[in-house]
Design a protein that fits this description.
- The protein is α+β, with helices and mostly antiparallel strands.
- The protein is built from five helices and seven strands; from the N terminus they run αβααβββαβαββ.
- It has one domain: Gcn5-related N-acetyltransferase (GNAT) (Aminopeptidase).
- 32% of the residues lie in helices and 35% in strands.
- Strands 1-2-3-4-5-7-6 form a seven-stranded mixed sheet, with helices on both faces.
- The chain is globular and about 40 Å long.
- The two termini are 28 Å apart.
- The N terminus is likely disordered.
Length: 171
């Protein structure tokens, strides 16, 4: 029984992670709109990809590479970067895909001499806050009433988080 469990955890993931290209923006845009009240449009994604320092990584099924499971959108300027959006399809949440995606993005940014990575996350998003905490992000601020819910016009606070990439050890 223990060998069977060990074998399950040693299996290669059924997805791959890659840097997104222009041909991926339509699918990433649809996933973004599914994950958030206001998602990223195809035009916004194309504009970001055309910028120096604009990156989008995604995780896609190995058997179906056009089936995008998760994405992360990042903008880097000088020695700092910011996660602008990250989302995972609901049926694939909790499987460690976003964690691997972030680890890949972090390793790439670190190799490009980016020293700090920032993001904002809803204080009510428990699973995302847990992930960022496990990766070593630290809370450096709060933005009151930062996120507005489209369905009821209520507001949520956002935590501003920072990861020091100079001291980051693949967590």
């Amino acid at each position: 029984m223990l060998q069977l469990l060990s074998d399950l955890y040693q299996q290669e993931p059924s997805y791959g992670i890659c840097l997104s290209q222009r041909e991926h923006v339509d699918t990433i845009s649809l996933l973004s709109e599914d994950c958030f009240d206001i998602g990223w449009s195809e035009i916004q994604l194309l504009n970001l990809l055309n910028e120096s320092g604009g990156f989008v990584w995604h995780a896609a099924g190995k058997k179906k590479p056009d089936h995008i499971l998760s994405y992360v959108i990042i903008r880097a300027v000088s020695d700092e970067a910011e996660i602008l959006s990250i989302g995972t399809a609901k049926q694939h949440q909790g499987k460690g895909i976003a964690r691997k995606l972030l680890q890949t993005a972090i390793a790439t940014l670190k190799a490009q001499h980016i020293n700090h990575l920032f993001l904002e996350v809803s204080t009510e998003n428990i699973s995302a806050n847990h992930l960022y905490n496990k990766l070593g992000f630290e809370k450096v601020g709060i933005r009151k009433s930062y996120y507005k819910h489209a369905h009821d016009n209520s507001y949520q606070d956002a935590s501003v988080l920072k990861l020091d990439l100079k001291t980051y050890a693949n967590q």
